[in-house]
Amino acid sequence: MQQQVLFEDLGAKQYKEVWDYQERLLKQNADIKLLFRYTSDVKAPERELPTSSHLLFVEHPPVYTLGKSGKEEHVLIGEQERAQKGIEYYHINRGGDITFHGPGQLVGYPILDLEKFRTDLGWYLRTLEEVIIQTMAEYGLKGERSPGETGVWMDAHIKGKERKICAMGIKCSRWITMHGFAFNVNTDLDYFNHIIPCGIQNKAVTSLQQELGHPVDMDEVKYRIKKHFEQLFNCVLVSH
């Protein structure tokens, strides 16, 4: 059965505002699961619990975010220089290391109840990667996986030419996900020069614009990602 996923395009929003919003959505779902799990007269299967799944699209002002297992030394500029450049910084609760969000980058935050999809984080991450890979294919580009490195790459197996186009990092609590992917569309890649992206040394970062040689229509990218998300997650996106 196809699941319904509530879709919101938040436009341009500060990172902390959207992080807090994700936390509220996750907590709402977690509270529902706790209530039903410990109410003895309700024996509904997990797939029938009244949790809700969401997909958020957003573009953030410039911000560096460091995952819970990340290393501070992968941020190469200090607080004063970040302030001069107008870059925010947060140490957050997703997996992964340091990454950048900013204008021209499409950030997607799925808040999914995986008990209504598939309780397998490996499957979830590979499926998110496949959404981006199939979207890139529509632009004539070959997105690839790099063994042991979550996200989507180009020329992942050609030493010296590897470049990352989409970073991913998630949190999952009671099988409810948050955080997600950051797809470089028309991103200013100079911001990546001040960090070691994802903590991976000597590998470049790229964007759709860089690879195609021209700016890309963001609304078109959003449409294509939504289409592949629906197909690969066997769901229907409903504007919220």
State the gist of this model.
The protein has 240 residues and is α/β, with parallel strands linked by helices. It is built from 5 helices and 12 strands.
List keywords for this structure.
nine-stranded mixed beta sheet, globular, 30% strand, single chain, alpha/beta, 240 residues, BirA Bifunctional Protein, domain 2
The helix/strand class is: alpha/beta
Quick one: CATH class? Alpha Beta
Q: Strand tally, please?
A: 12
Order of helices and strands: EHEEHEEEHEEEEEHHE
What's the tally of helices?
Answer: 5
- Would you tell me which CATH topology applies? BirA Bifunctional Protein, domain 2
| Major beta sheet summary | 9 strands, mixed
Average pLDDT confidence is 91
CATH architecture: 2-Layer Sandwich
Sheet-strand content, in percent, reads 25-35%
Total domains: 1
Return Rg in Å: 18 Å
Structure description:
This protein has one domain: 2-Layer Sandwich (BirA Bifunctional Protein, domain 2), CATH 3.30.930.10. It starts with a strand and ends with a strand. It contains 5 helices and 12 strands. The protein has helices at residues 15-37, 79-85, 121-137, 208-212, 218-233; strands at residues 3-12, 53-59, 63-66, 88-91, 98-101, 105-111, 144-146, 149-154, 163-173, 176-184, 204-205, 235-239. The chain is an alpha/beta fold. The protein is globular and about 55 Å long.
